[in-house]
Amino acid sequence: MQPKSISEQFREQFQISLADTNDLKKEVYRIRYEVYCQELNYEATDKFPDRLETDIYDDRSLHCLLKHRASGVYAGCIRFVFPDPYQPERSLPLNKVCSLDLDLSQLPPYSYGEVSRLAVLSRFRRRFGESQTPGGLLFFNDRSQEGEEKRGFPVIALSLYLAATCIGMEAGVERVFVLMEPKLARHLRYFGFVFTQIGDFVDFRGKRGPYQIRRQEVENSLPAQIRELMEVVRSDLIVSPTFIPIHNSQLSIRN
């Protein structure tokens, strides 16, 4: 029997959608509270008595939710933050923790954005060592002839990054910023996301640095199986009855 492709496995096990209603956004904030506040202690629990982890960037963001089909559990989330055109140098989350080697005020408004707040529930962060990162990586396991498991593919984290990428491309964004560990940048490069470092590393929940990737690099560098997975993710977003295309002129989300 022909083994199933990564995109086929994803379609069977997961579904991704925009969190563009108040109820769905609460699901995003609940996941973030569990991961960032309770599990990793990145944020103080007493800051969020309603057990919803939010910040000042959420109103300028589009959020994605990943749902595990079999259990009906929302397993993870990510957001795409659009800039404040009136305060470009202070408009993105990474501006609070590091300096960039480029002047955001010189870029066209709405031509860039930041991917942030990747979070995956601990029960879906299965590989050793990945329980200590907010995204983790869930691999589809296979069996060798000797019966030992071998690792397959980081589908959860990657599908969420692909969802954020689809949002940015739909919005006409030309470059995307991410604050991340160099290890993650290397992993993403392996799957075709060629990020360029655009500032010095800082000590922020570990060693992290600002990176960017341009639209053309995404379009030209993704290998076939990742592009196929991206199309599945894109179709999930587009067929959703709550999907709203975003244009350069404004950020529009239905509540």
Descriptive report:
- The protein has 255 residues and is α+β, with helices and mostly antiparallel strands.
- It has one domain: Gcn5-related N-acetyltransferase (GNAT) (Aminopeptidase), CATH 3.40.630.30.
- The chain has helices spanning 6-13, 22-39, 155-170, 182-190, 215-221, 224-239; strands at residues 14-18, 61-68, 73-81, 112-120, 142-143, 149-150, 175-180, 196-197, 202-203, 207-214.
- Strands 1, 2, 3, 4, 7, 8, 9 and 10 form an 8-stranded mixed beta sheet that branches. A two-stranded antiparallel sheet has the order 5-6.
- A hairpin with a 4-residue loop joins strand 2 (61-68) and strand 3.
- Helix 1 (6-13) runs parallel beside helix 6 (224-239) and helix 3 crosses helix 6.
- It is globular.
- The chain starts with 5 loop residues before the first helix and ends in a 16-residue tail after the last helix.
- Residues 127-133, 135-152 and 242-255 have low confidence and may be disordered.
- This is PEP-CTERM/exosortase system-associated acyltransferase.
- Pfam families: Acetyltransf_5.
CATH topology: Aminopeptidase
Count of extended strands: 10
Please tell me how large the radius of gyration is. 18 Å
Q: Which structural class fits the helix and strand makeup?
A: alpha+beta
Which of globular, elongated, flat, extended, rod-shaped describes the shape? globular
Strand content: 15-25%
Helix-strand pattern: HEHEEEEEHEHEEEHH
Our measurement of the CA-to-CA distance between the termini, rounded to an integer number of angstroms, reads: 46 Å
Could you tell me the mean pLDDT?
A: 82
Share of residues in helices:
25-40%
* Biggest sheet architecture: 8 strands, mixed
* The CATH class: Alpha Beta
InterPro entries: Acyl_CoA_acyltransferase (IPR016181), PEP-CTERM/exosrtase_acylTfrase (IPR022484)
Protein name: PEP-CTERM/exosortase system-associated acyltransferase
Pfam families: Acetyltransf_5
Organism: Hydrococcus rivularis NIES-593
